[in-house]
Amino acid sequence: MLSEQLSNYQNAMSDNTLALSLLNRYIDDNHMTINIAGMILSGFMTEREPFVLSLLHLWRSWSIKLLKEKAKIIVENGAYVLGCVDETDTLRGYTKPTVAHGMAYKEEELPQIFIQVPDKENPTQYNVIEGICLVGRNPSLHPGDLRVVQAVDVPALHHLRDVVVFPQSGERDVPSMCSGGDLDGDDYFVIWDKKLQPKEWNCEPMNYNAPEPVQLNRPVRVHDLMTFFVRYMKNDSLPTIAHAHLASADYLTRGVKDPKCLELAELHSKAVDYVKTGQPAQMPKRLRVAKWPHFMEKRFKPKAATYHSEKILGRLYDRVESVDFVPHVLKAARQTKSKYDTAMRRIMAQQEIKTEFEVWSTFVLSKPRVGSDYKLQEMMALITGAFKDRFRQECIDRAGGKEFSVLGPFVAAMYKVTKEEMDIALAECRATKVVHGITVPKRKMRPESMPLISFPWLFEKELSRIATGIEAIDDFEERGFETADINKPHAQGPKRHIGMSSLQEDDIITQENGVIIHRGEVLDLFEDSASDGGIDDESEDVRSPSGLSESMQDLVDGHLAANLAAFRSSPPPLNAGRPSPVSNHAADNSKEEAAPLLLETKVSSPSVPNTEPVSEVDTDAEEIVEIVEEEDFETPAINKLSSLLDL
């Protein structure tokens, strides 16, 4: 199972169909994989768009990290569902078995459950699971927390889907035997894979009855709350107990059945109920861990306090090789989109995250200094959600509305600005300067000093619409899983096209001395123009142009207003402005007869004051093109958007 999962992750990097399948099956808590799957459906993986490829590689690294550190193996023949009760009283309840070990357990003595899950091939069809199943609840520390049950088909319960139905009768309810669960919203895992059936069935369950809470014979005062809060912070030992149980179960010969582990399991249950009972779980010194297994990664412990585990978790850990995520597209660009970049870098610094892709997708690879990985991902979902909402709304306000007729050109401008700055930065990385008699690169290709490229992907649906000419659809069933054609280029068959006109030539001019400059103002989409200063100490020749706070308003009020009529009119085909296969002459005519200007980023009006050049590169135009091509940035995806925007 582990080898198959690792192989799938590797093959998904080059197989669009497999990547789409895995992303829609292995959905993360924040549903970010669904967004990535939507980008693949729009053709961005086929066209090898840098941002999408970086996200895909990050998802793979993050998934392998969970495999290595958490042994998070996907069980295909299993489900993680909500628990509910059998209101028909049809299912057989739990009775104390007459035989306690292995396959000699009488199947007719097993408690029964009912579970109905979607079919793998056709999610609209549901299948009733029948046979021997393993049911449990996280975390399962006691050997009796995993229960072997019999799944049966009950026609009266066919209206219940995506839940596990437990019997209401029996000597003891099954949910309470699963780590002290109940049916007030608890989730349970059900596994019907025969390879994962335990050799020993249904060990004696633990008694999970919580102790009586502390009673007060008077009304609760604020002082009582303050006292309890301080006492709780001092005695919250739940993580310590959980780690001690994991290490002891691996180190001790009898594993989870060792008396030390059984006592730790009881303490863990008491620590969980501490908030409700007010009675702390005190962990005695004799239960402290003597040696830690290597898979727990206790890097700050003395070497004598660790050992190499040969049990299942240690072997799984050794079989998985971590994959470092180094996004290749960070070999480009300089200071850009100052307000967005500053906010992004602030989050990266506060959470000690290395790349913007981890923030954007919430697939964080680094370990938190405080708290668990789950808490970090939960917190990143809130931080990233608020971050995206803030800048989406600011972009919508700057564009003048959510309608695609006004937001579409703005999103195209966002992509154009990022692309232009990346091209110039690539040239700077190849260009050299002399410092103290030594020739050094003008800019070093270091991720921490490179600008960010995620800004236009705040609007991935609008970018998909620009690239494919098809309006984005949220419902995957409506959109269809025609995965057989995903590996082929888009624009197959008729499409509902949107208005797209070709832009004029890129605003690059070559002076007599060979220096290349960009005319007009850089689109500083926000006003915090100096906020990203100091990030790149290598760029001494970068100068901030004047009048940046007015450039975006000039763009929206001037250029867009003059061309919205053409944008809303009958659009040209998506290949307008591209070379025709008939002849070069036809290609020239096609470009000359393209639709009117949609969006122009240079300011050429005499009434606008001249600004200083954005950047000076000591190369000619042909050399810049060579540099960009050698850096493998001119991907088909960039070419597609560039042909629409005439970058």
Kindly describe this structure:
This protein is an alpha+beta fold. It folds into 3 domains: 79-196, Barwin-like endoglucanases (Beta Barrel); 222-319, no CATH class; 329-469 and 497-645, no CATH class. Helix content is 38%, strand content 9%. The protein is built from 20 helices and 13 strands. A 6-stranded mixed β-barrel has the order 1-6-2-5-4-7. α2 (16-25) packs antiparallel against α3 (32-41). It starts with a helix and ends with a helix. Residues 326-336, 475-485, 490-511 and 515-635 have low confidence and may be disordered.
Summarize it.
With 647 residues, the chain is α+β, with helices and mostly antiparallel strands. It is built from 20 helices and 13 strands. A six-stranded mixed beta barrel has the order 1-6-2-5-4-7.
Poorly predicted residue ranges: 326-336, 475-485, 490-511, 515-635
Number of domains: 3
How many strand units?
13
* Through-space gap between termini: 47 Å
Q: What is the global morphology? A: globular
Mean pLDDT: 73
Helix content: 25-40%
> If you compute it from the alpha carbons, what radius of gyration comes out, rounded to the nearest whole angstrom?
30 Å
Largest sheet: 6 strands, mixed, barrel
Query: Can you count the helices?
Result: 20
Structural class: alpha+beta
What amount of the residues lies in strands? 5-15%
Strands in their spatial order, largest beta sheet: 1-6-2-5-4-7
Oligomer: single chain
